[in-house]
Amino acid sequence: MTNATMTDNRTDDQIQNDVIAELKWDTRLQTHHIAVTVENGVVTLMGWVDSLTKQWAAEEAAHRVRGVKAVANDIEIHVRPSDERTDPEIAAAAHHALNWNPLVPADKLSITVSKGFITLKGEVEWQQQKEDAERIVRNLWGVKGVNNLVTVHPRVTPTDLKQKIEEALIRRATTDAERITVEVEGSTVILKGMVRAWSEREDAERVAWSAPGVTSVENRIAIVP
What is the Cα–Cα distance from 100 to 79, expressed in whole angstroms? Predict the structure, then answer.
């Protein structure tokens, strides 16, 4: 049996062990509070952490493991009473954080906070701005969840999108561009093909979203470990 075959035919037990190891590798996490199960390549995370940032970090860690097809994140957020923040405090912190970030058009966004959950609304020109806004408020202490309702309305008209995205994929060291095809319908990008890990699939989608004028990305890339 070749090394490639041994790597590709991963069992649930192997994936589970690697996910646990990856969680322990991430110093942000309290791994003794997180349990991992795997069935047919689908990982389920259970337990609790004390912040939304750590909940997301655990999910990202699981997605980095080869052979993972999907992740169900059932981790709960338990904030100690002494660390609780009121909704007005969270809203003020979110407003301040967005206004201090030069990459986000804070004047085009609105913030609503209810029971620790932030809802973002407004319009931006780039998908990256929408993602940055969510990332900024998600990392604030006391936030229990983020509902990102920001819409993307680019001012530029997509031109040569297919070529630009294909060239960007080739530049990425983490992406096997030869196994990915790009189709463009208006301002919608359709990605097809096969990759060996969820992280590579996500990276390809980020590349597509980063192209000017893209308003929608359909990621049909399959994961074939």
Answer: 26
Q: For residue 194, list its beta bridge partners.
A: 222
DSSP 144: -
Distance, in Å, from the CA atom of 38 to the CA atom of 71, rounded to the nearest integer, reads 9
164 SS3 class? helix
Alpha carbons 206 and 55: distance in angstroms, whole number = 21
Confidence of residue 72 (pLDDT cuts 50, 70, 90): very high
Q: Please say if the pLDDT value at position 225 is more than 80.
A: no
Contact status, residue 146 vs residue 138, Cβ threshold 8 Å: yes
The percent of residues above 70 in pLDDT, for the chain, comes to 93
62 φ, ψ (degrees, to nearest 5):
-65, -40
Place of tokens 């074939």: 224
